[in-house]
Design goal:
Elements lengths: L5 H10 L3 H7 L9 H10 L5 H7 L4 H8 L7 H11 L3 H10 L10 H11 L4 H10 L7
């Protein structure tokens, strides 16, 4: 089954009289992967241990394991730290943020622009934080 475009779904939703009918008809098109599942898929592409990932993402191993097990939902900043630690692409990072119902990174915001640059250039989390601090922006941790 071909995925429907977001605009097509929006148009159907606007013209549909019954939300139940819309939900039933479009069930296959809803995002169903959890944050833990998306993170696990990204982690599978790395050659890192979970301990190394925790260090690169600036968090404890216990917290990291809880996130991967789905017992904790990371904040937006923690999720960004995980993306940096996993060396996720900008697109992968944006998808994770969207799936977690967080604002995506927006290049018109100074803070987000610094983070985006760091993700695009695979900058270490400590360097991104240093730049955020130097620019009087809230650090990621």
């Amino acid at each position: 089954m071909k995925n429907k475009a977001t605009d097509d779904l929006r148009q159907e939703l606007m013209s549909e009289g019954s939300i139940d009918a819309y939900l039933h008809r479009n069930a296959p098109h809803f995002n169903s992967q959890s944050i833990a599942e998306l993170l696990a898929a990204l982690y599978e592409k790395t050659k890192l241990s979970k301990a190394a990932l925790a260090r690169r993402a600036g968090m404890s191993e216990v917290y990291l394991h809880q996130v991967f097990a789905g017992r904790r939902k990371p904040s937006r900043d923690r999720l960004i730290c995980l993306c940096v630690g996993l060396e996720a692409t900008l697109e992968e990072s944006q998808r994770l943020l969207k799936q977690a119902a967080y604002a995506q990174l927006y290049p018109k915001l100074r803070r987000d622009a610094i983070i985006i640059h760091g993700i695009l250039h695979h900058t270490a989390l400590s360097e991104i934080n240093d730049k955020l601090f130097a620019e009087n922006e809230k650090t990621l941790f």
